[in-house]
Amino acid sequence: MHIAHSYSQSKPLSLRRFIGKFALLGCALLANNFAFSPMAHALTTDDPLSAQRNLRQETNPRGWHARWVLESGTLTERQRHTVSLELLNDESIRQVLNIEQVSAKGLFIEQPSNFWNYGRSKVNGISKESASLKLELYPANAGEFTLPSVDITLGRGENAFVVRSDPLNIVVESLPKAAQGKIVSPE
Fold first, then answer.
1. Which of 42, 92, 103, 130 is a good FRET partner for 24, with 20 to 30 A between their CA atoms?
2. Three-state DSSP class for 72?
3. pLDDT 10s digits, 112-131
4. Which H or E run contains 133?
């Protein structure tokens, strides 16, 4: 009876020691494995936006090119103008295309649709496959502005890559004196 009594008194203490040592050993092994793993410094998530930040950093790989295209030659302050962001390649464009919101100081840029128009465009006399996205541009004032470079993400997951458009300098003219201070709408 005396043996059973001492066993029952020491059992909780030894169980606590065992659990403590096991937990300490487990933490040490986990930390050791994590420190030497190739992913130790690159945690991943299922968040698609954070995945886009880790895309291949090639600029315009494999003959891809992106540019701004103005539909009219003359831009006037306080009027709506349509511009297109055009993606070009020698082969057909089959990837999923995404861009982030486009903004520039002094210009209000609106994306009325997420739908890309696919077709062909001639660049320096050479026919290219194209995908274009229409944007509405509202210059607040007259002056010189720059449509910024835009990163177009093509594809998803490991095979995704980015094509960066060229920036475009534009000149916005003033309204005629007779129209200044009045509400102006396109025809």
1. 42
2. coil
3. 988 999 999 888 888 999 99
4. strand 126-139
CB distance 56 to 161 below 8 Å: yes
| Both tokens assigned to 20 | 């403590």
| Angle value at C-alpha 118, between 113 and 121, nearest 5 degrees | 120
Element (H, E) at 6: helix 2-36
Residues 100, 118: Cα–Cα separation, whole Å: 20
| pLDDT for the residue 21 | 60
Tokens representing residue 150 in the block: 């835009």
Distance, CA of 68 to CA of 162 (rounded, Å): 16
| Torsion angle in degrees (nearest 10) through CA of 36, 40, 45, 49 | -140
Strand order in the sheet with 97-99: 97-99, 151-154, 161-164
Which residue from 148, 174, 141 is spatially nearest to 74, judged by alpha carbons? Answer: 174
Q: What is the pLDDT of residue 74?
A: 85
Residue 36 has pLDDT above 80, yes or no: no
pTM of the model: 0.61
Position 62 scores a pLDDT of 72
Q: Which DSSP category does 121 fall into?
A: E
Within 13 Å, how many C-alpha atoms sit on residue 68's CB side? 22
* CA 72 – CA 137 distance, rounded (Å): 12
